[in-house]
Amino acid sequence: MAVIKQDDVIQSVADALQYISYYHPLDFIQAMHEAYEKEESPAAKDAMAQILINSRMSATGHRPLCQDTGIVTVFARVGMNVQWDGDMSLDDMINEGVRRAYLHPDNKLRASVLADPAGARKNTKDNTPAVIHYSIVPGDKLEIEVAAKGGGSENKTMMAMLNPSDSIVDWVLSVVPQMGAGWCPPGMLGIGIGGTAEKAAVLAKESLMDPIDIHELRARGPQNRVEELRLEIFDKVNQLGIGAQGLGGLTTVLDIKIKDYPTHAASLPVCIIPNCAATRHAHFVLDGSGPAVLDQPNLDAYPDIVWEAGPSARRVDLDTITPEDVQDWKPGETLLLSGKMLTGRDAAHKRITDMLNKGEELPVDLKGRFIYYVGPVDPVGNEVVGPAGPTTATRMDKFTRQVLEETGLLGMIGKSERGPIAIEAIKDNKAVYLMAVGGAAYLVSQAIKKSRTVAFADLGMEAIYEFDVKDMPVTVAVDTKGESVHITGPQVWKAKIADMIASDKQD
Q: Which residues span the domain enclosing 433?
């Protein structure tokens, strides 16, 4: 009979969350590197290079892979014979571990959890509480899987109650393009099938804790319908041509994970949840012998890739840029930004538009400026700013026309695609939208040389900062004519992949 100490649970959860903030699972690194080596789309290959370089930098510097350090999800399997040495509930132990992890002074993580979600939306300041799922199982051990799930991937979750005769494959292929690129592909898709609506969602989430093994599955061959589905969906999703960061390419998913459960005769509940390019999870077992020990991965296992902008990259001085200068920027073009930019995401945009509607003067002049959609991690040590990758830009779509037309903002920088209302607004105002790589937050932060808060300080990481940047790499995603690389890129690569398949069949 194991006696598990309260402090061991707390420490193990805290250590695991710190660990996954800067270490990718090695199976993910290997799968991403393999995809990088095979990728033929220059834009997608460039994005994967940044993700892999960022991963190595984070592992070396022990700083977050992504600025969105997530909401914590825990799967706890509690042995029926476990005895406890402590006075806290297991929920409280886990949440204390979360608190310590996110407030760790040497690697402070971003607190993204808000209480009163339908009301005041007040930050809990320590990322608690976690979302915890329990199973009571035979034995005398405590098994825990812990993950940090970013909003960019979680928000792309899709659920449906299909008819029993409907095709799950067809449903997946219909919803994946609707997810856009805000979930930062390439990553994994977790699919839950069966049970009830909420059970399908939990199954989908739990499936993402499994290791990447799709190539091993293909080599040995499927042994049941779920494994057949994994291979079929894997191939067909990649044939969509969405590619890394939605730029168009050969690899959109690195694996498909599926868990199923018996369901009602009249039902077919399904849920799909993506894991992004900042995949973060760990697994440990406590048996009463002390806290978990997570082995540090060998840095030699990380590919040594050097990112280069290339000779065609255009250098841009943000301090002297004019509306005329941006007119000849082309979709897919690489820019290296230097100078001063502002930041601002959901809460800042809401406050800006509220002030405009009231006729109030804004605390910052946006005319002719660029605004970066980011909520950075707090700096530690000598850092100017913590990891500062882009957030999903579509959340700002509803604000875009008003901000462009009433402030004279010239350009925006964010993650993934813009929706039709934003593209129309960009076109009408001859503005531009640029894309930075999601999943490369620590790498991006190295381009930021100065940072200061200039407005809405009470919003914390959602305040408006002014960044002074040097050679920050971005891609022109929507030009002044309204052409979007996130529309044209996947279209081109879907056709190319179809041609490749047709050619292989003829051979």
A: 314-489
The verdict on 159 and 190 lying in the same domain is: yes
Q: What is the pTM of this model?
A: 0.95
C-alpha dist (Å) from residue 267 to 27, 88, 203, 263: 35, 40, 16, 7
- State residue 281 phi and psi, 5-degree precision: -155, 160
**Separation in Å, CA 335 to CA 108, 247, 385, 434:** 31, 16, 22, 9
Beta strand residue intervals within 31-169, DSSP E: 71-79, 83-85, 114-115, 122-123, 131-137, 142-149, 158-162
Beta carbons of 135 and 77 less than 8 angstroms apart:
yes
Evaluate whether residue 375 is within a structural domain: yes
Specify whether 340 is located in the same domain as 462: yes
Q: What stretch of H or E contains 405?
A: helix 397-407
Each residue's pLDDT tens digit, 124-174: 999 999 999 999 999 999 999 999 999 999 999 999 999 999 999 999 999
**Number of domains present in the structure of the chain:** 3
Residue 7 per-residue DSSP state: H
Residue recorded with tokens 């009463």:
288
Q: Residue 87 burial (CB < 10 Å; 0-12/13-18/19+)?
A: exposed
